[in-house]
Amino acid sequence: MRINKKKFLDTLTPVFSIAAVFFIWWLISLFLPPVRLPSPIAVIEKWVKSVFYYPQVSMYAMGGRNFNLHLLSTIRKFFIGVSIGVFSGICFGLILGWSKMLREFFEPPLEIIRTIPSLAALPFFLMWFGPRESSQLALVSFYCFTMLVINTINAIKNVSPKFFRFALTFGATRGQVYRTVIVPAIIPEIIGGIRVALAVSWGFVVLAEYMGAGYGVGRLIMSFMPFLHTIGIFVGIFWVILFAFLTDFLFMKLIAHPLTAWMPH
Amino acid sequence: MKSKVKIKAEGLCKIFYSEQNEKNTVFKNLNLEIYDEEFVSFIGPSGCGKTTLLNIIAGLETCTEGKILINNQLITKPGADRGMVFQENAIFPWRKVIKNIEYGLEMRQINKQNRRSIAKEYLKLVGLEGFADYYPKELSGGMSKRVAIAMVFANNPDTLLMDEPFGSLDYVTKVELQKELLKIWQKERKTTLFVTHDLEEALFLSDRIFVFDKNSNVVEVVEVPFSRPRGEEVRNSKELLEQKKLLWRYF
Amino acid sequence: MNIKKGFKLNPIRILGALSLLIIWFIASKIINNGTILPSPIAVINAIPDLATFGGKELGGFEKPSYYGAFIVLSRNSLVTFARLLSGTLIGIFAGVSLALLIWWDETIRRFIEPLILTLRNIPPLALLPLFMIWFGGWELGNILFISSSVGMMIVINSVTAIRNLSPVQIRLAKTLGASRGQILKTVIIPGIIPELAGGVRVVLGMAWAITLGAEFLAVQSGIGRILIFSMNYLATDRMIIILLIFIIYAYLTFIVFSKFVNYFTLWMPERE
Question: Is the model's pLDDT at A176 over the cut of 90?
């Protein structure tokens, strides 16, 4: 009987907590003007409408009768940017892991890039590529690239020497050891890095859209601001939160867990 | 009946430099000979360099001065002819058991079918039939050691190096694995170098025992008087106990 | 990543950094376009122009000068750092306290933990417009924003760190008769410092991003704002100055932080 009670509470309390948050939100919204804090019910209602018919989009922004065009634009920038950045970052990290010479050569610039906030690159991209969507994509790729290169190099350093010593006693060449020991061994750490990069990249793409032009959820939110269409801002942010959740969930389920099934927990 | 010399150390000298650039001499002038197909143990207190010697023979470390020869050729790097079982569990966690055992064969680019059948043979030999598709995380310490032994034997090295392989196991598992090791060794005789702290283990398994002191000198080479094949009765015999007492003098 | 070792300076690295400078110079001559890549000399010459940032109301000078630029940069750097540090410190304090509360009381854990796990996935940078609507350019609001994002990350980091503590030590303390409060003070808090230090490093990166993001969009002072200001004038040379300042500051925070951590973790056995 006790076990059931614990499990029951464990599944009930999360729901309760989140419901409580919405409830408190609703309470506070009664006392504040909708420009400051719209009621959660209104937000959800508008959220559903946002994929069908949302007049403010054509009124305040440009492009489309609803959010769809912009949602797709942001999603597209996110996925292309992340794919390019992550893939090239891992490859470059693997190359640097292999060649000591290249590693020493690239170490100073990498150290520098690692310590400065990636966001500082955005104004440069905006200036070089203009406020177009390419600068937004460039920021995401740049961030993912730098994160993954450093992540990969660290992961390689963290591989326990016992594994490659063992491999060598089977007569494995350096290349074989790299391929059959190092690469599988670093997968968990790289997956951790990708997961973080995914979450942060959503923030970056939206911020870049805040500051740039073109389509996208961020751009939409920015265009609502001068008109004080706060409820639309909430809807936009809800979409971003949903995307962040979904990508994390799908990433963990479809990629992370299968690839790390061998790990002891 | 004296067989030929398999491994020979001549004037071996090994110096380590620590991070603070302190000089730490492990071996000054080591000379020893190990014969073909004999089972040899190295015993001695912690830090006397037994593991270092094994690593040098494995090719994982180099000697500062002197020569180390196998089949009259200098040892310069690791190779499939010298298989090694470590004390720590080094089997690859990302590979299933059967693929772990196949590892050496994979490195030598033996084709898939042959690899699989050879690996299955050795899986059976170490008593892990049925565990082929398990991941190492699902294995106990003793089972992981068996996988490591299967891996090394499957690759058919000339020489077998074992660095306190049963050190981290409980007594019962240790005894079982010693039995299995001897069983496999009887079938496929290889020159074996076995590092251990356990006097009983050394006496039970080896033909000769090299006793090291804390200054890394060989103070005694003991010929183990028991005939082969050795059964469990040897382990509890009076002679073994006496030999153990003799060895104790050096500690 | 081994924080304890800091970083070593050796001739090869200095050469590597120097070669960057040389490559920069050559590249700028080849590209020959001051807006895309000004030469290092042009950048140095542009320093005085920073003195006019902000106009009279925000403390800018009327005429360009090196002295003026120095004052303007210092003042704005102080502002940015003040935001960053206060936000981060408050966030760390709040985050660790909350994590300890979660450990202390099971009921609190039941209610707060699921909340945190849901909230962790919200990208703080995306929330900037909300922050702008609610707080305008109000400094305290800015700091609250940074604190809450930092706090969120630190709570999760700390809770994991507490969970990763070896239960043996807690049991030992209990057998010695320690009360819960004493265990908290003498076992848990010192025990989580190493893992916390690693977490703070990561959090610092995010805190920088948020501070900068806010300066890009919402507030009117700080070196992030100077960066944007220069961007609007296509003054790449001034932007590069700010970038170099970032690099210096980043290294400074890294060194200071490493020394700080080293002091607190003297007892830790070297892990390699």
Answer: yes
CB atoms within 10 A of CB C161: 22
- Pick from C15, C125, C145 the residue to mutate for testing the A interface (most A CBs within 10 Å): C125
Taking an 8 Å cut-off on Cβ atoms, the answer to whether C247 and A122 are in contact is no
B151-189 pLDDT, tens digit each: 999 999 999 999 999 988 889 999 989 998 998 888 888
Alpha-carbon dihedral of residues B5, B6, B10, B13, nearest 10 degrees? Answer: -150
Per-residue DSSP letter, C269: P
Question: Peptide bond preceding B229: is omega within 30 degrees of 0, i.e. cis?
Answer: yes
Quick check: A218 and A74 in contact, CB under 8 A? yes
Q: Are B42 and B222 in contact (CB under 8 A)?
A: no
What's residue A255's pLDDT?
93
pTM of the model: 0.88
Alpha carbons A216 and A68: distance in angstroms, whole number: 9
**Could you tell me the CA-to-CA distances from A22 to A16, B175, C155 in Å, in that order?**
10, 64, 22
A174 exposure class (CB count in 10 Å sphere: 0-12, 13-18, 19+): exposed
Alpha carbon distance B54, B65 (integer Å): 16
Q: Do C125 and A206 touch (CB under 8 A)?
A: yes
Q: Is A9 on the interface with C (CB under 8 A)?
A: yes
B-proximal residues of A, 65-94, CB under 8 Å: none
- Kindly provide the b/e burial profile for residues A175-203, where b requires at least 16 CB atoms within 10 angstroms of the residue's own CB: ebbbebbbbbbbbbbbbebbbebbbbbbb
**Band of residue C10 on the pLDDT scale cut at 50, 70, 90:** low
CB–CB contact A169 B78 (8 Å): yes
Residue-by-residue DSSP string for C24-93:
HHHHHHHH--TTT---HHHHHHHGGGGGGTTTTTTT--SS--HHHHHHHHHHHHHHHHHHHHHHHHHHHH
- Could A168 and B59 be called an inter-chain contact, meaning their C-beta atoms sit closer than 8 Å? yes
SS (H, E, C) C4-21: HHCCCCCHHHHHHHHHHH
Interface of A with C in 45-74 (CB under 8 A): none
Identity at A195, one-letter amino acid code: R
- In chain A, the residue whose alpha carbon lies closest to the alpha carbon of B107 is A172
Distances (CA, A) of B187 to A36, B81, B181, B182: 83, 18, 10, 9
Q: Which of B60, B81, B92 sits opposite A168 (nearest CB)?
A: B60
The rounded Cα C262 to chain-centroid distance in angstroms is 19
Nearest to A170 among B77, B95, B103 (CB): B103
Q: Which of B200, B191, B189 is nearest to B224 (CA)?
A: B200
Residues in chain C: 272
pLDDT confidence of residue A260: 92
Enumerate helices (H) and strands (E) in chain B, giving the number of each. 9, 10
From CA B188, how far away is CA B190, in angstroms rounded? 6
B142 contacts: CB under 8 Å, gap ≥ 6: B169, B173, B176, B177
How many beta-carbon contacts under 8 Å exist across A and C?
A: 134
CB contact under 8 A, C16 and A222: no
Rounded to 5 degrees, φ, ψ at A11 are -85, -25
Task: Say if A102 is an interface residue toward chain C (CB within 8 Å).
Answer: no
Segment A126-155, tens digit of pLDDT? 988 888 889 999 999 999 999 999 999 999
Q: Chain B contacts of A173, Cβ < 8 Å? A: 107
Q: What tens digit of pLDDT does each residue of A91-135 get?
A: 999 999 998 888 888 887 888 888 788 888 999 999 888 888 899
| A211 and A136 Cβ atoms separated by less than 8 Å | no
Distance CA A138, CA A116 (A): 17
Contact (Cβ atoms closer than 8 angstroms) between residue A232 and residue A56? yes
A225 to chain C, closest Cα gap in Å: 8
- Give the pLDDT of residue C251: 77
